[in-house]
Every structure is written in structure tokens, then in C-alpha cells.
Design a protein that fits this description.
Elements (H helix, E strand, L loop, with lengths): L2 H18 L10 E2 L5 E2 L1 H17 L4 E4 L3 E3 L5 E9 L1 H5 L6 E8 L2 E8 L6 E5 L5 E2 L2 E2 L12 E4 L7 H11 L4 E4 L4 H7 L5 E4 L4 H4 L2 H7 L3 E4 L13 E4 L2 H11 L1
Parallel strand pairs: 3-5, 11-12, 11-13
Antiparallel strand pairs: 1-2, 3-4, 5-6, 6-7, 7-8, 8-9, 9-10, 13-15, 14-15
């Protein structure tokens, strides 16, 4: 990863936002994919815009995208794309969706962007560097205990029965719980507004960009067993601002 990769990641997010904004709160067709998730023309146009720039500037890198699949996914360097994480929120006109752009090197996330193109919120994380939010840096907040923690998840309906039971063990000990938010929740952890996010069933394009952002802000992001996330992880994730709270959550989820 180089400074040029960071500059390119900003350009990719800009291109995606330019494709998405004309469709926000406008009429469009909502299709249902094989996994029953929604997709729109904005999802497809945003990913196409990102891929066009990658083909021009990083033709030897691999790409894994939610809408257009894989291209050289076993390359040493792979860009992982979710053009609209939170398509349901986008369809409903809620500005809490986001474009996710990640760079993996040898299967590990080293660069990540969350871009909310309506509000202008953008988090950028890069390995070994502090997470950038807007023109400043993002910092997690410390939390004395799980009992004091504000936790979040996109939807309780996204958990299978066993995973939901595990989530409930955490929820009943937390101070309160926020539902909804998709990738935006992880930016809120990085910026110190939310303490924990717990999710299951995520695909690599859902979480890869989030890891450098949360960790670069001083937080912890792992699977439910406390293992660092990398290509091949099972999609059950914890993001926490405080390492002690992360450990408490891991113990309850295990």
C-alpha cells in the first residue's frame, strides 16, 4: 500500500458517490437477488464506476465486488467493493448507507473507506496510520464495562437462531442497543459515538473496509472468537472501541 493507493481510494469513493447521488430519493426499480437482498441501478452504476477506475489505474490487482463478482480474486492485492452497503436504507431514502472500498494484501485488509455520499461522512483507514474522518482524525472512546456500553447491530433478523441467542446474552448486559445503521455504525465506533457492533452472516465486501477504520481509530475488530479478520473469516464480527469490552463480548458470544 502506498500514498497513491490512499489517493486512489478517495477517487474511487468520489466516483461512486457521483453515481449514487442522482438516484437518491428518486424513482427507480428495486430488484431482488438470489439471496433475497435488494439491488438497484445505483448499486450497479457505482460499482461500475469504481471498476472502471481500477481497470485504468490498477489493472494487475484483483477485484471482488458485490454486484459484478470476482476478477483475479487470488491476486496478491485485491480491491473489495460494496457500492451501497445498506441498500434497504438507500431505497427508503435514509442517508445511513455507505460505499465500502477495501484493499487486501495477502488476504489482510490494509486500507478501507466508508463513504456516505449524502451527508459527506467519510472515514479512511490505512494500516499503520490513524483513521481519518473528514479533515481530522477519528478516535474511539473508552468504556468502563459492557454494562455502560451502547451496542449496535443492523437487524436482529439477520442472525440465525444460535447466533441470535448469543447476541441476546450480550444485549441484556449492555446499557442500550441501536438497530439499523449498516456500515455507518462502524464509523460511529471509530469516532467514539458507539461502543460495540456485533453482526453475523457478513460477506467479505461487508466487513473488509471496516477493519482498518476501526483499528486505526484505536479500536478492536475481530471475529466472535477474537481472531483477526482476514479473507476466509466466517462473517461473524465484533467491532469495539474498548479492548476490555471486546473481551467481555467475545466471552459471552463463545
Amino acid at each position: 500500500m502506498s500514498p497513491d493507493d490512499i489517493a486512489l481510494a478517495h477517487a474511487l469513493a468520489d466516483a461512486a458517490g457521483a453515481a449514487i447521488r442522482p438516484w437518491f430519493r428518486r424513482p427507480f426499480l428495486v430488484e431482488t437477488k438470489e439471496d433475497f437482498s435488494p439491488v438497484t441501478i445505483a448499486d450497479r452504476e457505482a460499482e461500475a464506476a469504481i471498476r472502471a477506475l481500477l481497470a485504468e489505474h490498477r489493472p494487475d490487482d484483483g477485484v471482488i465486488g458485490e454486484e459484478y463478482g470476482e476478477d483475479r480474486p487470488d491476486a496478491e492485492r485485491v480491491w473489495v467493493l460494496d457500492p451501497i452497503d445498506g441498500t434497504r436504507a438507500f431505497v427508503a431514502g435514509r442517508p445511513i448507507f455507505g460505499t465500502l472500498i477495501a484493499l487486501l494484501e495477502a488476504g489482510e485488509p490494509v486500507l478501507g473507506v466508508i463513504d456516505q455520499c449524502i451527508s459527506g461522512d467519510r472515514w479512511m483507514g490505512a494500516a499503520g496510520q490513524p483513521t481519518v474522518f473528514g479533515r481530522g482524525t477519528a478516535h474511539v472512546r473508552r468504556c468502563a464495562s459492557l454494562a455502560a456500553a451502547h451496542i449496535g447491530t443492523t437487524s436482529p433478523h439477520a442472525f440465525g437462531p444460535a447466533d441470535f441467542a448469543a447476541f441476546e446474552r450480550v444485549r441484556v448486559q449492555a446499557r442500550d442497543t441501536l438497530y439499523g445503521g449498516d456500515c455507518h455504525n462502524y464509523g460511529l465506533v471509530a469516532s467514539g459515538h458507539l461502543d460495540v457492533v456485533i453482526e453475523a452472516g457478513l460477506k467479505i465486501h461487508d466487513w473488509a473496509a471496516l477493519v482498518p477504520i476501526v483499528t486505526g481509530a484505536g479500536g478492536v475488530m475481530t471475529d466472535w472468537a477474537g481472531v483477526a479478520l482476514r479473507k476466509g473469516s466466517d462473517g461473524r464480527v465484533i467491532a469495539a472501541g474498548d479492548a476490555g469490552v471486546a473481551t467481555a463480548v467475545q466471552a459471552l458470544l463463545g
